[in-house]
Amino acid sequence: MSKALPTRSENYSEWYNELVKRADLAENSPVRGCMVIKPYGFSIWEKMQRALDDMFKETGHSNAYFPLFIPKSFLSKEADHVEGFAKECAVVTHYRLMNDPVTGGVVVDPAAKLEEELIVRPTSETVIWSTYKNWIQSYRDLPLLINQWANVVRWEMRTRIFLRTTEFLWQEGHTAHATSAEAVAETEQMLGVYATFVEEWMALPVLRGIKTPNERFAGAVETYCIEALMQDNRALQAGTSHFLGQNFAKAFEVKFQDKDGKLEYVWGTSWGSSTRLMGALIMAHSDDSGLVLPPKLAPIQVVIVPIYRDENQLARISEKVALLVKDLKKRGISVKYDDSDAYKPGYKFAEYELRGVPIRLALGMRDLENGTVEVARRDTKTKETRTYEDIVDHVETLLETIQQAIYDKALAYREANSHKADTYDEFKEILDSRGGFIYAHWDGTSETEEKIKEETKATIRCIPLDAVEEQGTCIYSGKPSSRRVVFARAY
Amino acid sequence: MSKALPTRSENYSEWYNELVKRADLAENSPVRGCMVIKPYGFSIWEKMQRALDDMFKETGHSNAYFPLFIPKSFLSKEADHVEGFAKECAVVTHYRLMNDPVTGGVVVDPAAKLEEELIVRPTSETVIWSTYKNWIQSYRDLPLLINQWANVVRWEMRTRIFLRTTEFLWQEGHTAHATSAEAVAETEQMLGVYATFVEEWMALPVLRGIKTPNERFAGAVETYCIEALMQDNRALQAGTSHFLGQNFAKAFEVKFQDKDGKLEYVWGTSWGSSTRLMGALIMAHSDDSGLVLPPKLAPIQVVIVPIYRDENQLARISEKVALLVKDLKKRGISVKYDDSDAYKPGYKFAEYELRGVPIRLALGMRDLENGTVEVARRDTKTKETRTYEDIVDHVETLLETIQQAIYDKALAYREANSHKADTYDEFKEILDSRGGFIYAHWDGTSETEEKIKEETKATIRCIPLDAVEEQGTCIYSGKPSSRRVVFARAY
């Protein structure tokens, strides 16, 4: 609280790091690459979890829980999968410590070596499909629609709180179906759930699209994704939904008897979203004064600060506020009355601004006399004076207005930062001067994609689902292309 | 479903294992000692989580998240703690796999050895107190009231689903206070929360007590516990709350400046409950026909089964049931209408009995004519016919009646199986013929406690908080004792 945040224009990366720390969202832990999610940050994550979980259940999914550990041999059963994950996984090799007979210190007991090493799950397809083998015999057992909330570990060399950490929290859906069409429909449905959640709850517009083979999930036939644009004009993948074909069914021999009695391999999907979304939420909306939270995800939606000179004044204000708090809570609005005597109003204002509380109400003696309340919006930093009678209705409407305004602002930002490039020079010029989403023609080859990535650090974020047919030539190879894909530098 | 469960009297242990499997609660996973919690079992656990989480929040606690991994050296900082956990922890030694250059198989990459091994958390005191060091400077930072929902790993040699598994799910509260008295009050408050939850939600009466030094948590000054009695007359510890004194504050140098500016070590508590509670829930109430679930934790509280001969009859019944379902849902009752054509009513009855659905309603053509509904209670296996108009009110009341009846039955069972023993012979006779809780005098020494355990496998479950002063002599040593403690063989 003592000094200002770095500004976004000065140093976006430092601004993000400091904001995460000062708004009490999370911090680096003493364990390399792992984070501690602090209570305020976790309460936002809990709101995200609850909203997503409700949506999963409304679409017929149930939660379950599968083991943290995966036998090394399981990982190898799907060839692409092991290729994708073996290089970054934490390996458990022993199950006991002992006192070193020489030094007396605590060391790994060499006698307690595991016969087969265990991997800490980087994702759970393998252990789940090995289980589904026993759960699925007939078409009557399908579809199987399961989700799991869990921690996963991927040994990342460069980590960044929420965006890329060795351990992170996520949910992973794993479904099994009788037909390819049904599995594809599920994959698309869950992409839709993610898009709806990110747009309606996080107030963040997303592009829906398909990944190129290069960027596909290890073991998937098709990876669908949603992509959002951050304020530094980098893209952030906010959720993925994979059509697995019969890849894992074949790797784990999961077959079912169809209505005609024929044995067939099962069709699968998996889909995930993680604490990365916290990073997206922070980076998309916040400003140089701190967090800006969409009301639907704000742990505190309204804070009330009394302006007083003495105990007597405070008592009179508090009496009035008590009724207000009660009325707001009746409408399901989460409200905090900060009557602590330890800090001055100005300090409190800055504190709640930093923490992104959407609406701040202030009441002083003059307000009591005039029957008014001062209303400050976090997102626009505007203030107005309203009558006390009207305030509960006004706050309720204003929360909706703010939710929409944050979304609209992010959408306008994305639109202002989406460009078409028709030549490679133009492409590089946009990338270096402005960044953002660049719509360009691509010849469809991995070679071209990799060359562009090597030379510019831009990747194909997705082939948009709503892309229109448009004849053109690849910005890199000059070969023909029939629609534009979206490039960006990304988190 | 095809054959009957083993009965409790035949083989209690097999009855439990089969019940867990057939009621679709959980199963052993391909990973040694780890379980898969299946959707039906997990939905019960979710209800338990929600209820406990609400109670934690009502008592001022916030959730947060700390790393899965603990550096080996952290574990050693508290002498008793490492002693208690080092012998059973999973150790991560490497962070990458590679293809074996000779065989081509996937092996641990020897070049990716960690400088310091990481332990998969068996409990999080060490990593949390190492974090609290930075969060606590002044008395104004206290109390710090935090809870975490997480998975933990303890390498158990003999495992049993829900009761003792290598990985399990739990919550662990970790709080920090300015005074010893406040920390003790917190420890006792959280024991009270557990007791209330287990009694009011799980319908299971518990003894509240203190553990002997032998049974104390590794690193605690005092361990409080709640103990429940299962139907095979073994005890099950259903939750523990630890007063940590300044042990972890000293191990991790966590000091605060008090109001007078003096630096003091912080006082701590920790408290936990786990998926073990699922085991207690199953073992305490269920019968030879399957699960018996207290209505407050039943994922489906009411199932409605139509009795019909043809499509036309089904349509008429379904029309009537639709209104009933709507009215029940309006009261917040979770109801399922099973109109599937794949199974006969008798099969469905057995299925829902096995799954412990508290109330089953059946409607046939005669019921339509007479304006009646058949109501069957799972707990008592009794049936009655009620009028259709009255049924929603009746179901609502009956759910409460059943919740209470299950509790009363468990309490009566415990009372019938609690005995006093005044001599060691009497003690052993009760233990071998009946088991249950045995109230006996004990001389207060670890030696006596260990001898009794060695000779009888009975342990001191607790020194009850409500024990009355009573002069007597230790059943083993004959030395004087001023109150009885509770012995039992335990899970």
UniProtKB/TrEMBL annotation, chains A, B:
Enzyme class: ligase
Assembly, per entry: Homodimer.
Highest taxon above the source species: Bacteria
Any one of the GO CC terms: aminoacyl-tRNA synthetase multienzyme complex
GO annotation terms (biological process): prolyl-tRNA aminoacylation
Predominant localisation class: cytoplasm
Record InterPro entries: aa-tRNA-synt_IIb (IPR002314), aa-tRNA-synth_II (IPR006195), aa-tRNA-synth_II/BPL/LPL (IPR045864), Anticodon-bd (IPR004154), Anticodon-bd_dom_sf (IPR036621), Pro-tRNA-ligase_IIa_arc-type (IPR004499), Pro-tRNA_ligase_II_C (IPR016061), Pro-tRNA_synth_II (IPR017449)
Stored PROSITE patterns: AA_TRNA_LIGASE_II (PS50862)
Known EC number: 6.1.1.15
Protein name: Proline--tRNA ligase
Swiss-Prot/TrEMBL catalytic activity: tRNA(Pro) + L-proline + ATP = L-prolyl-tRNA(Pro) + AMP + diphosphate
Entry's localization field: Cytoplasm
Function summary: Catalyzes the attachment of proline to tRNA(Pro) in a two-step reaction: proline is first activated by ATP to form Pro-AMP and then transferred to the acceptor end of tRNA(Pro).
UniProt GO molecular function: ATP binding; proline-tRNA ligase activity
Keyword entries, A-Z: Aminoacyl-tRNA synthetase, ATP-binding, Cytoplasm, Ligase, Nucleotide-binding, Protein biosynthesis
